[in-house]
Records
---
Amino acid sequence: MCERGGASWARDHQNVERSQMKSWINRRMSRWPGRFCLALMVAFGIGVLAACDNVLQVDLPGQVTSKALYDPGQATILVNSAASLFECGFSDFVASDAAGFEDVMTRDTGWWGGRHEYDTDPPTGKCNTADTGVGWWTPLQAARFMGEKTYDLMTNEWTTDEIQGDPNQLEAELAIYLGADYELFGEYFCDMAFEGGKLMGPDEVLASADDWLTKAIGHINDAGGDFAISGGVSSSAMELAYLLRGRVRYARGDESGAAADFAQVEKGFVAYDTRDAGGERTRWNKVYSSHNQEQINTVIPAVTWWEGPPNPWTGEAWPDTIPFTGYLNLGILPNGRAVADDGVAITTDAEPTAVADTRVPVVDLGRKFNEHESWRQEKYPGLDADIPMANWEDVWLLRAKMEGGATAVDLVNEIRDFHGLPEVSYVDPSDADQVRNMIIEEQRRSLFLEGRFWATKIREHLWFPRGVGHVEPPTTFGYRGGVRMVMPENEYRLNDNFGLADRGTMCAPNEAPVL
């Protein structure tokens, strides 16, 4: 399946692809007739699927060739399989490393594949079927590889008449997911390489994301205009492409380009990483699975125990309470204040007039586990809860960052009104620090457990423990050295263009992990 390598994840790529096709087919099979189920089983040779058990019982070949898989008659299945790989990886990413880097949670057991609070490199497992495991590097890389190969075949080898489905819509969907993949790698990794290629820094990876999303917009136009991405992912492919490209351009420092793209996104727009409680566990919402069902993690309070080094960007000591940490009992005062001027969040237990912030629903279970106070998230109420992968509130807050002043306050208040929360009236629009703190705190809360605040922490030079941390509660494991990540070690060992000594060299020194 994977003719050329240079990446350790490729060794299991064929099995990952087949597993994800099975997951995607199971998820949608109730909508399709039995004869189509049989056709897919014969075409891909992926075993007797649970969704087909009650239709026909047949013996199928156990292997599938690359030629049989990459067939123009299966174009729609290939596109949706690449999307399914991305979705599975993204769910695990949000639940594990993103939540760990955003100070949302800590592990309160010895399970779930090792620590993921400020890890230096990603978990290399496949899309996980175990409640106590996590893997997002391999499925995201497999989604990228499969998507790029399918896109190349659709645009350079297959004819329009051969392709099953609308070619421009399918190519647009592939390009959107490829852009999302490259954006994630560019925002959170210090250096990257693909298929044995050269070592790339964050901006170069983000440039690839920009290219793919620009292609997506072109294909949408060529398809005759906007369309919905099926399965509940997005009501508008065009808005999703513009939103993602705007985020990429903002991350690259292109504020005018970002503003133009964000102007195409309407209030209320959300695109989802879709989840399903039935069938394959790779389709489950891994946040709910780990936090609520298995109760392996607990939401944590503000960091008040820090005795480590000073802020490496300023050389000044960190305050007694680390700014922009803690997710328990978050509240908003009647004048809209959610954060003090020192960056410490307003809470309902400290401020009797504060109302609870409904965007950050967490509950105290009233017990301890391994000496940890047990708090559970309630943003995602079940295994089938979809996870936002692109949210209009993210756009509004990035626009607020760019525009500042009274416009920033107005944009924040649009979000507050949407959620029925007190409007901001305390901010002096001419006080840049006050405006900045307001926006950062809104990003923590509006994008709670959506895997986005990590990017804000990098850009705003917020707190990262850099390998220093407690081994007693409020943490179970000593924190590792992650700020941005580096690739797994084998990616450096197996590539002739660089070696282990090059890890963490392609980003700003204070953004590189402590290895």
---
Amino acid sequence: MKFKIRFIPFLIEIISFVIFLIILLNHTALLANPSKLYSTSIAHRLQTDALLHGHLSLSPRPFGYLMDYDWIGGHGLQQNWGLGVPLLRLPFEWTSVQLGAGPFPDRLILLFYLILTIAVLNITLRSVMKTFCVGLSSGIRFVIRWYFMAWIFFSQAMGGLIQKKINVYNETVLYGCLYVYVLICLLWIYIKRPNNRFYYILCLLSGLAWLIRPTLIFYGFPTFLIASIFSYKDKRSSRLIIMGIICFCIGVAIELWANYLRFGSMLDFGCPESGSVLVNYSARFDSTFSFYKIGILNVFKELLGDLFFLHPWQYHAVRLRNQMGNPFNIIHLIILVAGLILYGFFLAFHFLKQINFQRLIGVNFGLIYLSLVWGLITFGLLFSFYAIISVVSFRYLVEFSEALNVIFIALVLLTFSCLRIYFRRKESLISLFVFLGLFCCYANHKFFKFDQQSIKKRYQEQSTDKNGIKRRIREFNQGILQRPDLPERSYCGQSYSTAGLRYQYLGWDIYKDCSVSATTSAILPSEKCVTLNYTVRNIHEIPDVQVKRDLMYLKLIETNFNNIKGSSQVQMTQSFCSDAQITDSLALYSIGWVNRDQLNKVRGGIAPVKLNWLTVAQQSLNR
């Protein structure tokens, strides 16, 4: 009889889990075509294969260069999406290699971690709601818990990642979101049941968060900080906290050391060669979206409009805005404001000592309070970061969803905790539950407006079968094997594919009379100096040229110019040199052509400059 009583709720949970997963997958492109389970984006797969062979770089040479990849002399060819996802893929690929089964399907790996996150989050919420919803029956708690799950996974933000596109860009952000949800679950478990070993694991995982994406440190650091403060308030030993700090620092040190080995600098997460003029210029030289020039109010207004509205306050400054809508709506803004107001009341009454919150809502006030603090801190850190960078996209803004969802859960749990004390009748709780249900459906209704044919069409472009993925890897390896001698001098008539480099002369438009964009890049033999010869329309349009060899700025040591046709055109010859150590036989030379007060030329893409030729040579800086 006892077995039957325990088995029935377990069976209901399993059935609910399966139904939830089926509905979720039906609304996404994850398994739209079961015969094509491999992603056409091979960056994570190439990095996983490199790790299996014991090295970080995809190749020691730049040949085989792909868009959004990075090559720095002496550090090899790198992908720019971090080591976190390849490390998560590593056990599956290693097992598949050992069994001789070939490449492991990318979609199945992602599906495994999606299911794992849903299970961990569901189990954790079940444990948390047993504490805060004592007055409710198990059935009502069950429904509310699945409402939380629907609120998270059927949201506009999550739908934007997995409903239409699952490429390397969205996939990396999705892995990051899943990681953060597991992290907050571990924090909740630790606050409910403190355990020394669990604290060490939590601190280590918090430090490792930015292996997936650099911005996840804004979730990892608050998680570590709140866990440490809780341990201190719980009067746990100082030795425990010191060991936690060491574990967190180990995680951070791993990422910093990996950055140094991959890109030559601990704080460099890669400057990819992109098809965007603005991204190339901002990554290699100056940011085109200046926080100080635009003003704090305009910057914050623009980001606020991008998050919750349809971009009503975009500033006129040049910025790459790659958005397909807003990931949140006015309901989420109300949640954020309610969280801020509640936290303000907590602080005010704490200092005035007017209300004993511990008595008001029960002994687990710490979990609600710390969850609220966690959500507000992480939201504030992300908001400050994305307000000042020169690139903003829908997938970037999705990272705010974890903070907003935790604030929402904290507010609901606080409400039920108060009702448990002041209202004994279940009818009032059920009424509140119905209101919250309508609230959830209204706030998340856009996710269910999907076009199944559109999903299948896009999926065909982003997925392939085993033969297709083997062909893509073979093409990449063939590109690496091409190792021709690169010329020391390059002329404007040469094509992008000269010397076997797919993105050679990026920004050098040979079809428009060799005009150049804000940034021109080329891989050439590594020498002390580079000389540029270019033509501008008139003396007033001469750009402020900047040159980099890999990550090092070269110093301007000589300038010569003469008029070609009276005052209509000016031909410039400039030499840039450096005595800095040369670490490799080849170097990536990046040339910035835009004056700081002429950033409007970045918007048009092409500056009024015709690059005639460039050359590198072994010369002395003090010649």
---
Amino acid sequence: MCAQLKKDVKDFVRDLVSKDTTTLKIENIDFHNQIDIKSFIENELVNVSILSDSLYVVDKKVILENCRFEGGLWLEHFWFKKGVFVSTSALPRNNAFDGEQSFFEFHDSVIDGKMNIQIENSENVIDLKIVNCKLNDGLEINQQGGSFTLLDSYVLLQGKESVGYNSDGTPSEDAKQRTVDLWILNSGRSFNFSNNVFNFEFDLDSRAPIQFVGYIEANSKFVILDNNKLTSNVSSDSISNQVGLHIEVGGQTSSFNFMKNDFEIAVNLNLGFSLNQLKFYSNKLRSLRFSPFKIPSEDNFILWSDIAESNLGLLLLDVGFYDGRTTEQINDFVSYRQLIKFYKSLYDAYKTNGDIQSVNAAYIKIKDLETNELKIKYTKNPNLNLGFMIQINRILKFYTSYGTNPAKSLVISVYIIFGFACFYFFFPSDWDVTSKSKLIGNFKDFIQKNEKGYIKPFFALLIGFIVSLINAITLSLNAFTTLGFGNIPTKGIARYVCVFQGFLGWFLLSLFTVALINQVSF
């Protein structure tokens, strides 16, 4: 490696804001002297292009390779019109500034060309921070060591059409793709990715398929992705358009916070098996795909409401997205068991946290998968046992949400009782003959004009109607709760309906009892 030259940081600032439009490439320099760059530009330099919003114009591509700055480099209020490339690789410690922790920071700036920062194998800890910046052509970060912060920034990623090639190396129109590349790789102390807006824009007139490669890998002890918004003009639900963001944490990560994010494209999460703390809540996600991971046994907070409305599933090697909905997927026994195991891990985590609503929701999801599995087995081998199991599962879901909602069963029972009561209303019973005959007489009085007028017959009819309805409800309630009649106090078809309602009531109330015990004993 070439020996590091030493220069004053003022020389770097002069070259940076000069009106020269050729590429500024600086290699193997140690810049000494800490200065207030803004004060230096405004007070000591002349002929500097300054916009009305106080941005210093840098009309050149800036390339820094293996450069270090005493006390770090803080750039604020700059407009880099042709991009920034920073590369610091394998710098030996004995050439660095004594005992210093370096940093690169960009604040309140605009970068029109791509921002590409590579900090690899550095023995010196270098922190990287981008705050309140507007990046108009993507972002590519590879940082090893130090902390990474992307905060309050806007990133515009525009799809570019790439040339496709046939197997023989000749150009092919059919092999073209439109891609947007977002790469953020970090390995260090902390990773903070908060309050940012990402906008992915593609040329919708092009017929080339869209392949978005978005990848964030954080291998820091503390990883935070909080309050970010990610939009795209292409739906991730389209089969021909693979638009998504892959987020992965490494083995050094012990704490992962994913909160208040709004992502309009598919999100793939690989959280590994080393987490001690997981916070995942208040997110709005169109599609969420987990790779199998270990949920921390104690310090976890993951809301089912965050993931229930997403197209939730697993991202499995050699399989891709797997949600167990199709016959082909359920026939994949190994993947199906992994999916059940994943939902069971969520169920156990919710139970540990005492989140009974999420426990019930996860259990319902598992039972839905079981019902789909039974249906597929039944199509292959129809038999009475499988048929009854499927129907029982359907009744359990309709009546008690698989034993998780006893209140729902009570509401449905009330509807059933009133429904049968409406049927019994038109049939006399042994202890309701008088009210029925009176009701008919009152109705005749009401429709015939006589000396009584209409008012008195109307109220008599109304009272008779209420009495008959109460009797019908009483009969229905008696039948449903199977309190017993001795002799069934009705005749004709109503007698057989009473027997059926008694069996139905016995069966449904048994389900209610089980659901109630299940929730009380949680």
---
Amino acid sequence: MDKFILNIIHRPELVPEYIEKTAASGKTEDVSRQEVISESLDIFKLQQKIAHDCGFKTTIQMTYSSLLDEQAVNLVKHDSEKYGDEIGMTFIGLTCKDFRERFKTKEIAIWLFSMEDKKKITDFMFSRFKQAFGFYPRSIGAYYLDAELVSYIKHKYPEVHCAVATCWEEGPKAYRNANNSWYTFLDGGPFNPWIPSKSNIHCPAVDESDDIGIVAIPHLSRDLLAVFDGPGSFFGTHPQNIMRGLVYKGEKIPYLYNLIDQYKSLKQYNKGYSYNMIFVGPGWMSKSGRWEAPYELLVKNYENCMAYYADLKKKNEIEDKTMSEFALWFREHKPYKEPCCALWKDILFGSEKQLFWYVDPYFRVAIDMNQGGAIVDLRPYAAKLERPVGVGTKHIQDASYPYIIQSFYRAGFFTHYAGEGAIKSCTIEYNGEEVDLCTCRTQAHFKEKNGLRILSLNDVEIEFKDLTIKVASQFELCEGSGEIIITRKITEISDPGASLIINEYLTGCYGTTEYPEDLTGVVLSGTSRGNKKKKEIKYAYKCREQVIADVDTVQAVIPQIASKLTLFPVDTTAEGYFREGYAFSPMFTIGLKKSCKYKEEYRSCLRVEKED
């Protein structure tokens, strides 16, 4: 396969907040203000023209207000007939007079309503869509669509095949960056298209019985390193995000081109397939400008973006599809358990930093080569957590999928106190000295072999007081198993007779924000290999620890998120241990220690499972 697929999505959002606030400067709020509607429709026409002039067809997602506007409906019908554009629908853009009067609310986000209200809004919009176009949409979208609502839509409107279902990494970082006013916590999902589970929209389905019935795509293709480190709304293939992130100079936007190219390069990690999307509304090209950028520059920015895609199309290096066309293709070519991988390099600052991302139905994981191959993000998809959101649920605004490891939210290796942060890493011990691989920068290389995705890291050099060694690390991610096999090997040593202790450890917790959750109820345990004797600690913040000399497995069961982590040695003996934290260091740790010499390999396995 050699496919780089592009979705271009536009929406005639007739009352975008960005333009309404500008037009209403010094006036009372009026979401029916005609100058806002006229300007929005003009910009939508321009966006459509730019894409069509470059030879692309688009997916047009009708907003609530545009479904009620005869001019918008006729314009979209024309473009669909002439250019082959797909007419879909989006729940973005509920800020209009009719909506507020009909549903008696100023709420703007579909996922925040009660389930009863979600159904009422959905049925009204689908009915109005059918009235306008004579058919139901095959694609829909929002910033986030929860599994409960998608299941309802798919059951009642089976014509729907594809949905913009979540924003990638729009969590606390986005909230902080929006002056603590963006009450949407949506991170923890896949970064590329997936078939969602019936249980949770973030989780890829494990098989047909778990399939919710649509193909999901993320809202924008993000920079998988810059967005993990910082705000998601600055670094994506939305051209005006580039303006907001100030990642441009004059009319030149090389960062955007590099971002598109890096998405194109993901073919080498995904059996020849890669994907990219652009999803824009008219508010981003306000005629009064946005941020410090004038309207003319915003338009030029979008023209340059489309021209770059057009150049790739002329070279037969990209194929544009509508959303529903893509969904049909995806189902034909991507098996449920086939993972999505990305070995991502830093294109924002030009450093040598790399992150490796892996997503399958069992977990999402990020491995940071700048920290010696530490796991810095782990989401237990195997649990298939049902977490309804919106009014009337326990998680009204928080739609994020919980983490077990998230090093930015929960400190990671570099803590400022004597406690521990959430991370999976390895220490090397010799004569009372200890070095954590988190302090060793390296680079990685990828290959696929017999169902394994193998990440091999360059050797790192470690200097003790009277010994120098080099250590190689390798990660084997086993398709369809929920397992990661980690191999450490001492490849060079200044004293071939020396013996070292390699300590594989995982320090974790759970949560969706920076704030700690109650770990009471977490159970840590270990079983010996010979007599199968079991030890355990029921978490009570008492800083207790247990050691098992000849270990079979060590485990952490987290009932709050129905997840179980297991660490065990592979084809070798090791010492196991587990310990609870304390209130100022609310973590747990499970680990394996083994004595190793020159050229010996130490293999261990991390398994992620659902705990019933």
